[in-house]
Amino acid sequence: MENIAAKQLVEQNNKLREQLTPENKKYYEDILLYMRTFGFFHEELETEQHLMTILQDILEAQKHGESAEEYFGKNPKEIVNQLTKQFEKPSWKSIFKISGLIFLISSFFSICGGFIAPTLQVNVFVLLMDGILSIALVYGAFKLLHWSIYIKKQFPKIIKFFFVWILLMIPLGLFILINLCAPKQGIVKIGSPFDWMAILIILIMAIVYVLFKKKRDFYGGVVYIVSLGFFGLLLRIPQTKELFQGGKNPTFLVLVIILPLALFGLVNWLVFRKMKDEN
After folding, report:
1. What is the pTM assigned to this prediction?
2. Which listed residue, 5, 28, 42, 154, has the most CB atoms within 10 A of its CB?
3. How far apart are CA 61 and CA 70, in angstroms?
């Protein structure tokens, strides 16, 4: 029930926010992002209730010709910090729920990444370490975004570029290091015909789940997984396996790397445009 109430508040917030002037909207959306990134493990309903109260206050002030900055002051960060101190501490249930979801998604994509290997195999140690690292990265990303919202100092674009590049390379390097250093004792191999059967089952379950739940945010991920699964099945059909030299064909390797990522980006862009048009 709490999730439904929170989603209703989010939808109401999106509609009411359009009534704000451009200046007030920018002011409020900084508050919105600051509070939502703070409440990573907090109850979503509590965060959305406070955001709705602030939005209604700004709308009321706007009706009387008062800007959000005049109403809340030039430093809303202090007010929001005081407000968030009153939040209830995250429950262990909430922490485990969010962490578990991130862990499952990370493990799922790690397994799907093995589709394009000649032999379908899963390293239990890699799944475990990738999952833990994914939780830490998501939490760290939220904290970094939360911290950066009210930074007033502007840095040159070249510095911002290198900063973002380093932030992206560090986790990528850690994932590669985990895969290289993980003990081989944790490897579980799935031979034919169970390998292609496992791929088909995973693909069908992913497609049915996303379409049934209408989770448009996951459309790009599903297309990415399906494309990997398609190439994985080609590697396991005798005729195409020989054509692609068991996955060693240069053309096959280029397609496996570029096509899934390109489709992932394209679908996410189309979904984003559709959602933007609807709003």
Report:
1. 0.74
2. 28
3. 9
Distance CA 127, CA 143 (A): 24
* Portion of the chain with pLDDT greater than 90, in percent: 13
Q: What is the pLDDT of residue 73?
A: 84
CA 58/CA 273 separation, integer angstroms: 28
pLDDT value of position 82 = 85
